[in-house]
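Can anyone check this?
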Amino acid sequence: MLIRILVILQCLMLSACALHSAADSSSVDTTMSVGAVQYQQYLPQLEGKRVGLVVNQTSQVDGIHIVDLLRDKGVNVTKIFAPEHGFRGD
């Protein structure tokens, strides 16, 4: 009898947890984006500084390489660290 009561209590607790999880997941924004896409948030922190970047050929935002994008925005890119085949994939 005790085992039956414990099993019922465990089922009730698990179902309560499942309902709580379902309610939380609908209210959470799950949109993800890489940091390069959010570069405008970081521009004030880069102003007046020498910047080094670790990039490869996939480091692009809307088809524009992040190095070109930051230089066009006035960021002083002084060093580029890239794999052996180059940061543009050449």
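Reply from J.R.: I decoded it. The longest helix spans residues 2-27.
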